[in-house]
Write a structure and sequence with these properties.
The protein is an alpha/beta fold. It has a single domain (about 20-225), classed as Carbonic anhydrase (Beta-carbonic Anhydrase, Chain A, 3-Layer(aba) Sandwich). The chain has helices spanning about 25-40, 50-55, 80, 100-115, 130-140, 145-165, 170-185, 190-195, 225; strands at about 65-70, 90-95, 120-125, 200-205, 215-220. The chain has a five-stranded mixed beta sheet with strand order 2-1-3-4-5. Helix 6 crosses helix 7 and helix 7 (about 170-185) packs across helix 8. The radius of gyration is 19 Å and the shape is globular. The two termini are about 20 Å apart. About 40% of the residues are buried.
Length: about 240
């Protein structure tokens, strides 16, 4: 039987498999993500770990090398912007990357049960949740339904921005990303302990919707983002 993309079969994505499942160091995990983002931005993605063989290989278990706590925005698909595949990323998404018990439990599961060495808070410019919170703060009119919970979770970031004299939307977004990093560590003693022991790191990054580029905003420990940046893209292992 021919595999997709093989001679005699139907055209399909190029098969590319790497060793990301063996990553246990936070800095290396961050380097893997940034390398994938550079491939995405340059228009030369490898689409690793998306072939039928890898799909079968991860069916019995998962070993993601990063947890992505991201905004639910439809333009923020983590596996695409970081050029990753099946089993690579453990993704948790809420509007405005707000946190709650279910989010914290999901992160703790990945870090403690799956052994994931990196947690990334993924925000983006022109965030709708931040804009909604700004409107509520300006008008005093609360949104209907459960959207109020999202706004309430973002309002502390707006107050922090106001105290710092930050008024532009993207500056507030950066503060909200950093606030989410702090919230994860403050609200989860399990995650904080893993970071203290050096088994995990937490990095907040901001994604530019038009350019496709991610940049670090906050990191604990502070040097993990700079240590994780490599000079070139990661090298896939032999398939």
């Amino acid at each position: 039987m021919s595999l997709p993309g093989a001679s005699g079969g139907q055209p399909g994505p190029q098969r590319s498999t790497d060793q990301s499942s063996t990553i246990t160091e936070p800095a290396r995990a961050y380097a893997e993500l940034t390398a994938g983002n550079r491939r995405f931005v340059s228009g030369s993605p490898r689409h690793p770990n998306q072939d039928a063989g890898h799909r079968a290989a991860v069916a019995d278990g998962q070993h993601p090398f990063a947890v992505i706590v991201g905004c639910s925005d439809s333009r923020l698909a983590a596996e695409i912007i970081f050029d990753r595949g099946l089993g690579d990323l453990f993704v948790v998404r809420t509007a405005g990357h707000t946190t709650g018990p279910e989010v914290l439990g999901s992160v703790e599961y990945a870090v403690t049960v799956l052994g994931t060495p990196l947690v990334v808070v993924l925000g983006h410019d022109s965030c709708g949740a931040v804009q909604a919170a700004r409107e509520v703060a300006a008008t005093g009119v609360a949104p209907e339904g459960h959207l109020g919970a999202v706004v309430d979770a973002v309002l502390p970031s707006l107050r922090r921005a106001a105290a710092d004299g930050v008024e532009d939307i993207d500056g507030i977004v950066d503060i909200h990303i950093a606030q989410t990093v702090e919230a994860l560590l403050e609200q989860s003693s399990v995650l904080a302990d893993a970071v203290t022991r050096g088994r995990c790191a937490v990095v907040g990054v901001s994604y530019r919707l038009a350019a496709g580029v991610v940049r670090p905003v906050a990191a604990v420990p502070a040097d993990v983002a700079s240590l994780g940046v490599s000079d070139g893209p990661s090298t896939p292992a032999a398939a």
